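Reply to dn_fold:

You asked what the input looked like. This is it:
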Amino acid sequence: MLVLAHLGLMKTGTTTIQSTLRRNAGVLKGRVAVATCDEPTAAVRRYGQRLVQKARRDAEAGLREALAGLRAVLERDGAPVAVISDETLYCRLVYSETGDLFDWTRRALPLVARAFEGHDLRFVFYVREPEAWTRSAWRQMVKRARCTLDFDAWRKGIPFEPAWRERFAEVQAVAGAPVDVLDMDSEAEDGRLGAGLLRLAGLDAADLDRIAWSEPRNVAMPSGAVEFMRSVNASNLPFKTVLAISDLVQASSHHFVQEPLRTAVDGGVTLNDPPLPPKALTHGSEDGISLVKIAPQARICRNENAGERDGRWSR
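and this is what came back:
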């Protein structure tokens, strides 16, 4: 069996590709078994992130068992080709105190290669224009890692350069299987993001014409929403509450202006000027319970008297 492990990079259209794979299950049935970023890979993701990104050695046995389970699922399908697509299989961030994206990739790929010994395994990664990828990665850190830095400050602190040729040469040296690097930008321009992956899976031009291609998913937050989340990240709210706010902001990001926050005459910060719909997201607390809501006719202003890290906001 040919096994294509599509493991990222994050912020290269992976959500869109996974949507296309799920959407075309009927076209692929019998030819390509698919395990995307959902139930088939959940256990691998849980132990993979603990072991690789969080450096918890106690997760190693769990990861081996989870990978064996995933292999068994794909083998039972009986298709000659299997595609695993999960950019969060071993990390969710660009870097942390335990390493960076490419450190983790070099650690993770040999583990996956050992789990699929006996099959024809290939690793597949998409890349995009480096500056665009870096800015998208920063937005992800703001959304999911409580980053408070602006882009320029964050960019200076990245512990690696997004020089794809050099980075993937380092990965290939230890991967234990071939590594294919595909270009996201060219496929996205054609409206067929994921076509390169499906070609590797054996689909020809006629097959690709039958595919229902998904529209871009998980698109970037507008600048106003990102700036709001930076302020939320700097508050004293619990991390779980911050993540809940991030999810709500992502779902409601069209209510935010497409530009950075502007300081109002009274010292507040205006998030939602016309012509956008008169809605905005607010958060606060009542009886010790954090509250999040979208309020009509709202103007969100930071309470400048409350201190830089205070979570209170006024309407």
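The chain is about 45% helix and 20% strand.
Hope that clears it up.
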